[in-house]
Amino acid sequence: MPRAVKISDELAEIATVHAMLENRSIAGQVEYWAKLGKVAEENPDLPFSFIKDILIGRAQIRAGQKTPYVFGETP
């Protein structure tokens, strides 16, 4: 269920630029940042790039783009 959340004008302006770059809505961009922040906070030992790769992999699986990982092989 969608909810209205107030954010600062400054954050909205920054989100607008990033949303345009990533072809997301402003709300989608803020949700993306919130998801990354939540995962980063729950896993402080993981680097940002690793967290982002995990989220990309999960999205690929949901989209039916899964390929098996073979240990020892580089992509």
Which percent range fits the helix content?
Answer: 55-70%
Q: What is the number of strand segments?
A: 0
Shape: elongated
Radius of gyration: 15 Å
User: Could you say which structural class the secondary elements and strand pairing correspond to?
Assistant: mainly alpha
How many structural domains in the coordinates? Answer: 1
Order of helices and strands: HHH
Oligomer: single chain
How many separate helices?
3
Mean pLDDT: 90
Low-confidence stretches: none
Biggest sheet, open or closed, and with what strands and sense? none
Strand content: under 5%
Q: End-to-end distance, in Å?
A: 39 Å
Description of the structure:
- With 75 residues, the chain is mostly helical.
- The protein has one domain (9-62).
- It has three helices and no strands.
- Helix 1 (9-22) crosses helix 2.
- The relative contact order is 0.08.
- The model has no long low-confidence stretch (mean pLDDT 90).
Topology:
Layout: H1 9-22, H2 26-42, H3 48-62
Helix pairs in contact: 1-2
Distinctive features:
elongated, 75 residues, mainly alpha
Summarize the structure.
Helix content is 61%, strand content 0%. It has 75 residues and is an all-alpha fold.
